[in-house]
Amino acid sequence: MWLCHVAWSRGLLSMMPAMDERGPGYGATVSALAVGQILSWATLYYAFSSFVLPMQRELGWDKPTLMGAFTLGLAVWGAATYAAGAAIDAGHGRSVMAWGSAAAGAGFVAWSQVSAPWMLYAVWLVLGAAMACTLYEPAFNVLTKRYPLRYQHGITMLTLVGGFASTLSFPAIAALQAGLGWRPALAVIGGVLLLVAPLHAWALRGPALVASPHAADAQDDASLHEALRTGAFWGLTLCFMLHAFVQAALWAHVMPVFASKGVGEADALTVLMTVGPAQVAGRLLYVWLGRSWPLRRVGALVLTGLPVSMVLFALSRSMPALLLFALLFGMSNGLVTIVRGGLVPQYFGRTHVGRIGGAMSGIGLLSRAAAPLLTAWLLLAVPGYREVVLVLAAMGVVAVLAFWQSKPPQR
């Protein structure tokens, strides 16, 4: 069945060359990529938790076994990000994103047929690679190369739409499971993702570079080797790695943290449901007010929101304070993606943005994969969750300091 669906998606892709070689234009390209982002994030990143309990009931597997598959997928995502970026630098962005979506669709169809843990782990090997080819980073890199004069606006639009992925994912999957069951729901999701493949192929037709302010600037752009020799690369990498670690640790342990405070499940869900809209609100605020600010100043402000929100979460029990935490955390989480996507080409140029951004974000993604387990070990060494969250706040402070120390390198 897997091979049949891949062949079907290949047949759809083979029809695309008949279209205009000039490509669909900036607005249509960004719109199509935005649709791909919200569907890819809703399924590849957010959907897993919705299938844990149904799989446990039917298959009898324990949670560590199930979570191990998702952790493997996150690790593969991080490990494969550099390769995806290198392929985009070589001019293969269209193939990377189209075939990444096809692999995601085939992976979900295969997931619907699993009957043994090794099968689930094999599926998440594929889905982890698909994440590296479809989620934010490759789309950012493609836009940066195709539209050098407008890429920052495009990145903002993608993240603005992508911020609704969690809002779409949970109710849509709940409805599919209620009407069809968990296995058919996975197959339906796979079919939707297979349709994203020709959408990406259509959106990314035409030349990889549409316009450039100064063609000679490419001579000044840093290669990956040159970027690795700068303090700016390692400072930004440390900053975004710590930010990714804190985010992943919090999401993995957030319900036990609420329980340790004596906050009921209904109130906890109210707080958590505020995070998604706060992400979108932060991005809208940036669109309206923040784009005239230097991106480095925006980044410092955004990153400061993380440790402040963590301290608030560690020390608060009242609903107003917890809702303020959700607002600050959501806005920081939403805007840091824009900062990372826009700052890398500003610091190092566009020519090798795929490799440089891939190496930087790959390290962050590996730390994200390790965060839930390392945080669980930390809990054994400290009195309780309040201290764990305060440690996460301290890591956020280090991230801010690393960011401030990462000045643009001389080019």
Topology diagram in text:
Layout: H1 2-14, H2 26-45, H3 48-59, H4 63-89, H5 93-111, H6 117-134, H7 137-146, H8 151-162, H9 165-180, H10 182-203, H11 224-228, H12 231-261, H13 265-288, H14 295-315, H15 319-348, H16 353-381, H17 385-405
Helix pairs in contact: 1-5, 1-10, 2-6, 2-8, 2-9, 2-10, 4-6, 4-7, 4-16, 5-6, 5-7, 5-10, 7-8, 7-16, 8-13, 8-15, 9-10, 12-16, 12-17, 13-15, 14-15, 14-17
Describe it for me?
The N and C termini lie far apart (51 Å). α2 packs parallel to α8 and α14 packs antiparallel against α17 (385-405). This protein is mostly helical. The longest helix is centred in the middle third of the chain and has 31 residues, at 231-261. Helices cover 80% and strands 0% of the residues. Residues 1-20 have low confidence and may be disordered. The chain has two domains: 2-7 and 23-201, MFS general substrate transporter like domains (Growth Hormone, Chain: A, Up-down Bundle), CATH 1.20.1250.20; 221-405, MFS general substrate transporter like domains (Growth Hormone, Chain: A, Up-down Bundle), CATH 1.20.1250.
CATH topology of the largest domain: Growth Hormone, Chain: A
**How many separate helices?**
17
Oligomer: single chain
CATH class of the largest domain: Mainly Alpha
- Listing every helix as H and every strand as E from the N terminus to the C terminus, the arrangement reads HHHHHHHHHHHHHHHHH
Strand % is under 5%
Which overall shape is indicated by the principal axes computed on the Cα atoms? globular
Assign the CATH architecture of the largest domain.
Up-down Bundle
Number of strands: 0
